[in-house]
Write a structure and sequence with these properties.
The protein has about 325 residues and is of the alpha/beta class. Helix content is about 30%, strand content about 25%.
């Protein structure tokens, strides 16, 4: 097997919160990511799906080194990020770039967008002296921005244009891996399609490896080779995208798939009726963390946590009843 370019091994991350938001109140731990293992092969696109609050964005920050894990290991090209030497750290920072969910918040409002795109050239020494502007305008053309917009500020652009600026800025570092955290969730539907197609074109032409995070499984089906589904900080299913859509292996994934709108009502699968509201990730229930909402839960589900196990070649799920419920 090819060595993964980026890998998470039993990674966990918690955050200390104050109850009721009071500065002097007692602290509690919110476990955002709990024992998640993922491996990203060179040239692959891995999608990470789940509802808001499931730990997707925290996982993105762990993979890019923006957050250190409490437990477990993140490896880049086989080396633990915590053991990288200074020059290796610089290479990692350049090689693994992130596209953020909110393109406006990730841009310096006082910096002209051309200068924001050119900044990585200067930081990493990737362009000869005096050529940064030319290189930045070339990138602007690649992402569909007119070069004459170079001297404008972020507030002068639409949401879709700002996301193109964020993509260009990430590409300026000449990365091998792009981690895109909900790259289209804040955009109109028509603009979403443009950004998705742009990312797919860039991946093909530049040989990028990608992690795409989204609550929208339809987006991930279009973009991904494999899809990982998270629930309350844990990985509950991992499969090739096509296999996941043909026959998922977990009740939570089944509910996500049933919620995708279809063009024709007769194509819409029966709705999966989930119980209650999601639990909070600072205190997941005993047993299977999905059991309070699961319509198929048995007594074993309430007392014994299922392991993430392979149910079919390359298709793993954490469900006691997977083979019984999701027969061919």
């Amino acid at each position: 097997m090819t060595q993964p370019i980026l890998e998470a091994l039993a990674v966990s991350k918690s955050f200390a919160l104050r109850d009721n938001g009071h500065p002097g109140g007692p602290k509690r731990l919110l476990k955002a990511v709990d024992q998640v293992s993922l491996a990203l092969a060179p040239g692959e696109t891995l999608g990470i799906a789940g509802e808001s609050g499931c730990g997707k964005s925290t996982m993105a920050k762990l993979l890019t080194g923006l957050l250190p894990p409490d437990n477990g290991t993140i490896r880049f090209e086989g080396t633990d990020l915590q053991q990288l030497q200074r020059e290796q750290q610089r290479r990692f920072r350049r090689s693994v770039q992130m596209i953020f969910q909110d393109p406006f918040a990730s841009l310096n409002p006082r910096l002209r967008i051309g200068d924001a795109i050119a900044e990585p050239f200067q930081i990493h020494g990737l362009a000869p002296a005096g050529s940064s502007r030319d290189q930045a305008t070339l990138l602007m053309r690649q992402v569909g921005l007119a070069p004459e917009l170079y001297d404008r500020f972020p507030h002068e652009f639409s949401g879709g244009q700002r996301q193109r600026i964020g993509i260009a800025r990430a590409l300026a570092a000449q990365p091998t891996v792009i981690v895109a955290d909900e790259p289209v969730s804040s955009l109109d539907i028509s603009i979403q399609a443009q950004i998705i197609n742009l990312l797919l074109e860039l991946k093909q032409h530049q040989g990028l490896t990608m992690v795409v995070i989204s609550h929208d499984l339809a987006v991930l089906h279009h973009m991904s080779d494999r899809i990982a589904v998270m629930y309350l900080g844990a990985l509950v299913e991992l499969a090739p995208a096509g296999a996941l859509f043909r026959r998922c292996r977990h009740p939570y994934t089944e509910a996500l798939l049933a919620a995708i709108p279809r063009l024709h009502p007769r194509e819409q699968p029966p709705a999966v009726r989930l119980q209650l509201e999601p639990s909070t990730s600072d205190g997941p229930p005993n047993g299977c963390r999905f059991h309070p909402r699961c319509p198929y839960a048995l007594d074993i589900c309430r007392h014994q946590a299922p392991r993430l196990e392979e149910q079919a070649p390359g298709h793993a799920a954490a469900c006691h009843r997977s083979n019984e419920l999701f027969k061919p």
